[in-house]
Amino acid sequence: MNALTVYHDLHPECPIKMLTHLDDIARTLSEIDVGFEHLDVITASAFAMTEAEIADHYRREIDRLKTARHCPVVDVIRLDRQAFDRAAAYPDWRVEHVQNEPELWFVVDGACLLALHASDRVFTIHCKAGNVIAVPAGYARWFDFGERPHFAAIRFHAETSGRLTKTLENGIAGRFPGLDA
Predict the structure, then answer these.
(1) Beta bridge partners of 76
(2) Which regions form coiled coils (predicted)?
(3) pLDDT confidence of 47, banded at 50, 70, 90?
């Protein structure tokens, strides 16, 4: 189930708003310039396919999103609970960080929690297969994939080089509930 929970950034123990309807989630995220939509696609197990097969399976959606969002660079991110080593695989994703360019995420298998820190609010989005989330450049964010990840997404961005990530060493991500909470 999709869910959006909004918190004050100083009070992770007390949600301000909890939403589960896709239209309400999209409307609330649009207020902070974050795009959200759900595509009705025929999902397939991303863990039974190669990255090239995943791209071929979702070619129509990839082509549409690349054009509509002006994000021509695409890569596939997969985290499999069978082969996951938290220390080695994406160690900084559970730490608040900022990208210098916009990103678009199309979740194709499993689930994750994406947290966005905007002003004095934290927006945690429980993402699942079919969700598309557009995060503008400069937004502080972190991801949580749970203790036993099962997640695959197609990530879109604008450039092949020059992509910079700035880690914010403030510890805020550890104070908020993760995917398994």
Answers:
(1) 154
(2) none
(3) confident
Q: Say how far apart CA 12 and CA 17 lie, in whole Å.
A: 12
Where residue 171 falls (left for φ over 0; alpha for ψ -120 to 50; beta otherwise) is left
pLDDT at residue 181, as a whole number: 76
Cβ-defined contacts of 171-175 (< 8 Å, 24+): 172/9, 172/96, 172/117, 172/122, 173/94, 173/95, 173/96, 173/115, 173/142, 173/144, 174/94, 175/12
Cα dihedral sign, 142-146-147-150: negative
Q: Choose the CATH number for 3-175 among 2.60.120.200, 3.30.420.200, 2.60.120.10, 3.30.465.60.
A: 2.60.120.10
Q: What is the pLDDT of residues 72-82, one digit of tens each?
A: 888 888 887 66
- Residue 113 belongs to what H/E stretch? strand 103-118
Residue burial 7-26, b: 16+ Cβ < 10 Å; e: rest: bebeebeeeeeebeeeeebb
